[in-house]
Amino acid sequence: MELCLFPAEAPVSNRILTPAQQAAAESVRTAISCGSVVVLEGDVGRGKTTVLRHVQAIQGGVLLGMREFMRELEARAPFSIEEAWIRLMETSLTNHDLVILDDMHLIARVVEGYGYPHQKLLDAALTAVLEHASGDKKIVFAVEEEPPEPISRRAQMCKIADFEPEDYQSICSAYVEIGARSLDYQRIYRFAPGLNAHQLKTACACMQGASDLDTDGFIEYLISQNLTSNVQIKEVEAVDWKDLKGVDDIIRELEAKIAFPLEDHRAAAEFQLKPKRGVLLAGPPGTGKTTIGRALAHRLKSKFFLIDGTVIAGTNNFYCEIREVFEAAKRNAPSIIFIDDADVIFEGDCKAGIYRYLLTMLDGLESASAARICVMMTAMEVSSLPAALVRSGRIELWLETRLPDEAARKTIFSERISALPLPLASVDTEMLARASRGLTGADLKAAVEDAKLLYAYGRAQRSEPRPIEEYFLAAIATIRINRRNYARRKPTEMPGAMKPGFCSEDC
User: Which one-letter DSSP state was computed for residue 182?
Assistant: First the structure.
């Protein structure tokens, strides 16, 4: 990646606010005209400082940030935060009728942190300073989250709304001189609705010199730089639809009912289409349920959030983790929440609490803000799932995976064996397909790997060569024996093992 040169900040008078920022600035100015204490709230990167500079340019006064606060703190002891803050504010209020303090939440976080010796002293300092805010004296605070209680009791609240496509266009047009108008901002927003101004400015600065700037290239850049928080997908095994055999009907269903409404924006708007929010993949072990989920995540270039039985078995904060997964999925939509082996998760002693909690999370996906999240579950035994979880409305698409038929088995064998050296590559795949009836795709993969081992070991031992088919047939026979043994005696639980349902509702 070449070095990106960021454009210089535009003067305040020339800076164009996005629609969301403009609305927030007007709200702050209105609040100043009829009140003495105002709070501007906004998530990181929503442009709080930009809005404050705009307000100051029109209303006058002084704008204070962390630089001014730290200068005041330099001459004091490290724990004299409240004294430094009072001194800064009182001096500013003496000299100005309007004092604007940016990033108030940073100061609050320090004094509210564990180990800070002056607990609640900031509340007293705030109360003392706010007494000066009356008549002609006005104070505006900017925060990322709920302001300290003394401020919230007195302040009028203003907020920078979540960005819309028009905000994306406004930011990009200011930083990309060529090609910005040709970008499809509706499409970019649908792909990554959670981008903030910092991320958009970074993308625009680095795409500034691109001669062929278009929407596809812009989205590819967002993916490559993780600007959509798209970190999970890289950890998912790369699988394509063409890698799946014998499940063409399942692929068609997923394409029509999930991929199409997410990608065809015109059709989605015309017919008010929404992707299915709940998908159940049910079938025997080894029939490709997890692989289908991986392929769908890559097909959609989606974020992939995994919940599986192994995670549940080893933790005591299940509810915290589930909530964090769903919230992260909402922030990074379109996304896939993949609950693998859901029937195993519900086997434990806490299954009632777990499924009730999941029902709450699934029902929460009915909101418009979560319309591009797909929850996909896999199960070997559907009867182990709570009836309320699989009823119509929560699980909207029920797909059955099955054992590959003879044609699919031949295709799987052919693809895996074609890359092997001779004489392994010369094996009769049609014969193997007939001999492997009843085996799963995972079994077929294991058969090829075992046949390679048997052949290589025999050659190393200088054993009498056998027809190449015998190595594969021996591997298939071993797999069948192992399956029969497992069916007769399932593994017992190890003494002291933690049950899959171990959980806690403390969070």
Answer: G
Structure tokens at 190: 């649908």
Tens digits of per-residue pLDDT, 418-431? 888 888 888 899 99
For residue range 392-422, list pLDDT tens digits in order. Answer: 567 788 888 888 888 888 988 888 898 888 8
**pTM above 0.85?**
no
pLDDT for 22: 95
CATH number, span 234-400: 3.40.50.300
| CATH architecture of the region 406-488 | Orthogonal Bundle (1.10)
Distances in whole angstroms, Cα of residue 351 to Cα of each of 133, 280, 354, 367, 467: 55, 18, 5, 26, 52
The yes/no answer on whether domain 12-159 falls in CATH 3.50.50.60 is: no
**Bond before 285 cis per omega within 30 degrees:** no
Give the contacts of 172 (CB within 8 A, at least 6 positions apart): 180, 183, 185, 200, 203, 204
- DSSP 8-state secondary structure symbol assigned to residue 88: H
pLDDT for the residue numbered 225: 63
Where residue 354 falls among pLDDT bands split at 50, 70, 90?
A: low
Query: Do 12-159 and 234-400 share a fold?
Result: yes
Separation of alpha carbons 109 and 115, rounded Å: 12
